[in-house]
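Data card: per-record layout.
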Amino acid sequence: MRFILISAFLVVQISACFGQLSLDKKIGVVNSLSDHSACLAIKNAGLKKGDTIQVVLPDRPQTALTTAIERSENKSCSSAIDIFENASFYRLRIPDAPPAFNGFGVVGAARIRTSHGVASADLNGDGKVDHFRSCTATEGEHLTIWTGRLLVGKRIWHAYYYLGYDTIPTCKKNDTKGL
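The structure for this 179-residue chain is written out next.
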């Protein structure tokens, strides 16, 4: 009986790790560039020209835009310093986006919906609605995705985007708890 319980525990733990790995390959950070294009930084070196990317702009009202990868970049096109390890970079064309933004890049055609200025989707396939959030720290922006209610549910994805200038912190304790 102990062997079965230990085996079940390991399967759950391994599934949780693979779930996080798949989110890291599916979600990245997008920042605007000066020529109506944007840079996607993501832990996925296997994306190709023409792959669909949905960009979620986290400022209220949140919006979701659909675009495609224009080309891969050999080096960082992002203005953030060390956005995360092993990142791959891709150029996106987003003519309808605001002139300056940071947001989420979601690979594929996930069903991102916006209702009352809030974007949501089931990104990890658990049947629960996931929500997008951004907040500022002293010199950067935390981008997070939550299953369930923001700041109360489970944080399933996080990235820190270094802005390089002082900002007024808006993050709550739960935004960065455990990081």
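Known properties of this structure: The chain has two helices and eleven strands. The helical segments are 2-26, 173-176.

See the next section for split statistics.
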